[in-house]
Design a protein that fits this description.
PX Domain, alpha+beta, 3-stranded antiparallel beta sheet
């Protein structure tokens, strides 16, 4: 089977191994994983690891891993909404008031946070226009106070 190079539609150029299996021109992989619940009495909370792998130039690092709490995701979403009126920012998974630290609830929230980040991080207008997007996803020393209006 011959694969044609999509950049050369009218030629019979066969793809090289690098073209077939190499890194795509632009890729972005975002995972939200490894939820950890921290016991702090009445202030118990869960945070999530955000793993980013990309070659998109706007992202400072090709690979990164940071941890964020749900409350930080709420702040981040609000900040994205205030930065633009050209992009419809998707909702976060809803607040949970009972059994919020159960494995099932934590996993549902993790999945929802991952979908949210995949959508916003992959949006070209947010990649170019947001002051906070890259820092939230990649900066281990991220501080909301640096981005308050």
């Amino acid at each position: 089977m011959r694969l044609q190079n999509p950049k050369k539609k009218n030629s019979r150029h066969e793809l090289t191994v690098e073209e077939q299996y190499g890194e795509p021109e632009n890729f972005l992989e975002i995972e939200v994983k490894n939820p950890q619940t921290h016991p702090a009495g009445r202030n118990q909370y869960t945070d999530y690891e955000i793993v980013c792998r990309t070659n998109i130039p706007v992202f400072k690092l090709k690979t990164s891993s940071v941890r964020r709490r749900y409350s930080e995701f709420e702040w981040f979403r609000d900040r994205l909404e205030s930065e633009t009126n050209k992009v419809n920012i998707p909702p976060l998974p809803g607040k949970v008031f009972t059994n919020r630290f159960s494995e099932e609830v934590v996993e549902q929230r993790r999945e929802g946070l991952e979908r949210f980040l995949q959508i916003v991080a992959g949006h070209p207008l947010l990649q170019q226009g947001s002051r906070v997007l890259v820092a939230f996803i990649q900066d281990p020393d991220f501080n909301k106070a640096n981005y308050d209006l």
